[in-house]
């Protein structure tokens, strides 16, 4: 039993090394197949990281949503005290924080904006109303925040309430759409890998048709004939996926610097990161499985023609 | 033992290669299968190795009804048969010993046993000294002997040969036939398809003659004066 297992194992190892040898003997064709798989896999891996980064940033932005309550001009000097209104608002459990921005502070902020200083100094008087910046409680959805803004807008002391996160909503929807697109692209790439391997195996069968015929006639089982093609398909996919993983990380490494600098210009942080080892291993594993299956289906198709009729 | 009972073979294009063929070859017999080109000789051999299946009738080989064999049992059946071809069917990218070892490799024999048997088979056909060379460097007669060594290395019960001397000069052809006779001495059933009547004159054996798919002779060969 042990001897039979050792013979079986040695046969598999022999086929594995034979398959590696065959790839080595045709370096150009093998490299082309491996690179096609690598490039095809690197694309969705890079896009997936970009989309994940964007989703992280958007979620951070959504978490930092604010409602701007512009009070009626003159409220400050009258009976209504914006600070007191703010204190009153804080009693609402769905409000986490309220910050008061006086017209003077608002004007100073405006004057600090590039190119606005001259325009602000030309104003005869401060036209800005007192402002309360309301931070909703964490976990409040965009719809709930919108309802809160409407409710606050109906207060007598409030001239207008602005909560404009629709653009963020739209951007989020676009990013989600792109995410779905990346998933669809990954599926298409998977189909592409199957077709590439299927074509390579078909070519291999065609080149070794005489050998297969002889092995078949001297009593080679289907599993014996199939084995080298399965190993070839799996090996090409393994090498292609590993190269693709490496390639994706190289691209991400090249992009991360410029993207980080761009994000900093918008006062944000955007980390592309790397395709981590666990994801890489999953990609390699699934690709090897696809290559193995594609080779199996292709060889079995060939066997259909070899069957006794 | 090979037994054909009312066997017909019709190809998908409508050509009837065998028509109502019945015969029995006892174990250890030596038989020539003769007939003109297209008479159905190769088809008959293919039915024995199950490369083709009979359209009608029954083919029994060593008690196995070939119509019932499926999957790996077909491979196992073929491992009990040694086949020799007119064009040798040797792999040009492997050495002589690797070619001869092929039936043992596919049957899963252990490396040392394969080496031992391959050397014995090559010794038997007189090619032990050429074990490491590429078969394309050998003469036609030597290539055919490599083919015979490959056919017998697995110690088959049946040895089939399809025009094994078709491309050889008479002296080499006689050498090859003598090899078949030697293997027949150790109780291997030998069936040789040939259209060379000279062998039938030289070797007294059972003869099956096919003509347009029909068996027209199935008895003892008559010595030619």
How many H/I helical runs of chain B?
Answer: 7
Q: Estimate nothing, just give the exact number of structural domains of chain B.
A: 2
- What top-tier CATH class of the largest domain in chain B fits best? Alpha Beta
Largest sheet of chain B: 6 strands, mixed
Oligomeric form:
heterodimer
Taking strands numbered 1, 2, ... along the chain, how are they ordered across the largest sheet of chain A? 2-3-1-4
Tell me the Rg of chain B in angstroms.
Answer: 17 Å
In percent, how helical is the residue content of chain A? over 70%
Question: Separation of termini of chain A?
Answer: 36 Å
> What is the helix fraction of residues of chain B, given as a range?
25-40%
Q: CATH superfamily of the largest domain in chain B, please?
A: P-loop containing nucleotide triphosphate hydrolases
pLDDT below 50 for ≥5 consecutive residues: which ranges of chain A?
A: none
The number of E-state strands of chain A comes to 4
SS class of chain B:
alpha/beta
Describe the protein in words.
The complex is a heterodimer of chains A (309) and B (225). Chain A has 309 residues and is α+β, with helices and mostly antiparallel strands. Chain A folds into 2 domains: 2-61 and 169-306, no CATH class; 66-164, Alpha-Beta Plaits. Chain A is built from 10 helices and 4 strands, in the order ααβαβααβαβαααα. Chain A has helices at 2-25, 27-63, 82-89, 103-112, 117-121, 142-153, 166-207, 209-217, 222-265, 277-306; strands spanning 67-71, 95-101, 131-136, 158-162. In chain A, strands 2-3-1-4 form a 4-stranded antiparallel β-sheet. Chain A is elongated, with a radius of gyration of 32 Å. The mean pLDDT of chain A is 86. Chain B folds into 2 domains: 1-80 and 156-169 and 188-225, P-loop containing nucleotide triphosphate hydrolases (Rossmann fold), CATH 3.40.50; 87-155, no CATH class. In chain B, 35% of the residues lie in helices and 26% in strands. Chain B is built from 7 helices and 10 strands. Chain B has helices spanning 41-49, 72-79, 96-107, 111-124, 140-152, 170-185, 197-202, and strands at 2-10, 16-25, 30-34, 56-61, 64-65, 81-85, 158-162, 189-194, 206-211, 214-217. In chain B, the strands form 2 sheets. Chain B has a 6-stranded mixed β-sheet, sandwiched between helices. In chain B, α3 (96-107) packs across α4 (111-124) and α5 runs parallel beside α6 (170-185).
